[in-house]
Write a structure and sequence with these properties.
Blueprint lengths: L2 H24 L26 H13 L7 H11 E2 L2 E2 L9 H14 L3 H14 L4 H11 L3 H19 L1 H7 L10 H16 L3 H14 L8 H10 L3 H10 L6 H13 L3 H14 L4 H5 L17 H16 L2 H9 L7
Antiparallel strand pairs: 1-2
Helix pairs in contact: 4-5, 5-6, 6-7, 7-9, 9-10, 10-11, 11-12, 11-13, 11-16, 12-13, 13-14, 13-16
């Protein structure tokens, strides 16, 4: 094959790959804030429910249950089964809503809209019903702040409101499994957003402190905090902290952990271990490597959702992974010197 034909074939392959990645991004629901409701956002589906449908449903269920005390799990399940009718809770519409519930519903609408102005409007309306509504304060910050310092200040205000609402006893009693308590989630969301805003402002140490606190509060890490924290550790060369975090989630199923493992091993001087981890990372998600070796830049618009092991996952975490690799030039040189896997 002539050199001209090879170049033409490579150009066509590159165009096809770009089309695939653009299609992957377009097929996911978009918004202006990152996903946070699950460890790994779900693959695309024919019909996608609102982002917080499950959480809103739990609030409705608690409202219908009220003060009832069940003697067993079987009794509780029987009640829930009898309360459901056509996928809806019977009697829910007959129960009056107070201002806090109205504010919470409006805040959910603000979190689910794709329009920034509409999100700000809904957040302000929610706050007119409940000035301490944490999700509304958070959305007002995300949609209404005009600068990073203003965003940070507004998110701090949301976190303080959340801490007041929960109280010190709640923190002690629920430490380690915070996310399982519905009323903790607005606080957790606001604190994660604060960490990300601090990172944007270059306040890495303070951001890492908030991320570590979130993991301490909720070890199950439903928010995916570890996917931001692990690259930060490696970027700073904090191998001890990185190893502890890797060990805490040995069964993690993500491109972040797969592509951080070879970097940790390379920085530790274990080249055999790094090569083994690299082979596993390439097999898991080969689309990440081009971001790390300079063949591809992170996208301007990060997908709100992704499919594991696909280009959309690589695009979601490209910036964080690229940052922690590129600061270690020897590691990048080592990576470029390894035999490339398929799909790069």
């Amino acid at each position: 094959m002539s050199g001209e034909k090879r170049r033409a074939r490579k150009l066509k392959e590159r165009r096809d790959r770009i089309r695939l990645e653009k299609h992957e991004r377009r097929s996911q629901p978009q918004g202006f804030s990152a996903p946070e409701d699950d460890d790994v956002p779900p693959p695309r589906a024919a019909a996608i429910a609102p982002r917080f449908a499950a959480e809103r449903g739990l609030h409705d269920l608690h409202k219908v249950i009220g003060d009832r005390v069940f003697e067993s799990v079987e009794e509780a399940n029987q009640f829930i089964g009898s309360a459901m009718e056509g996928g809806r809770l019977k009697g829910l519409e007959d129960l009056p809503k107070d201002d806090r519930e109205i504010a919470r519903d409006l805040a959910y609408q603000a979190m689910e809209t794709r329009d920034r102005d509409e999100a700000e409007r809904l957040a302000r309306l929610a706050l007119s019903h409940d000035p301490e509504c944490v999700d509304a304060l958070r959305m007002l910050a995300l949609a209404g702040a005009r600068s990073t310092p203003e965003l940070i200040a507004m998110l701090r205000n949301a976190i303080q409101a959340g801490a007041r609402a929960l109280g010190p006893e709640f923190f002690e009693e629920n430490r380690g499994h915070f996310w399982s308590a519905l009323k903790s989630r607005p606080y957790m969301r606001a604190r994660f957003d604060l960490a990300e805003a601090l990172l944007k402002a270059g306040e890495t140490a303070e951001a890492a402190g908030h991320l570590e606190a979130l993991l301490e509060l909720n070890q199950g890490d439903n928010q995916g905090v570890r996917y931001t924290l692990l690259p930060l550790y490696l970027e700073a060369g904090n191998l001890e902290a990185a190893r502890k975090l890797l060990a805490a989630y040995p069964d993690d199923y993500s491109a972040v952990f797969h592509w951080c493992r070879p970097l940790e091993r390379q920085l530790a001087g274990d080249l055999a271990g790094a090569a083994k981890a690299l082979a596993e990372a390439r097999e898991f998600n080969p689309y990440v490597e081009a971001y790390l070796t300079g063949g591809k830049l992170p996208p301007r618009e990060v997908p709100d959702q992704y499919s594991p092991r696909k280009p959309s996952e690589a695009a979601c975490y490209a910036k964080a992974l690229r940052s922690c690799w590129l600061v270690h030039r020897e590691a990048v040189g080592w990576l470029r010197g390894q035999k490339r896997g398929l799909g790069i």
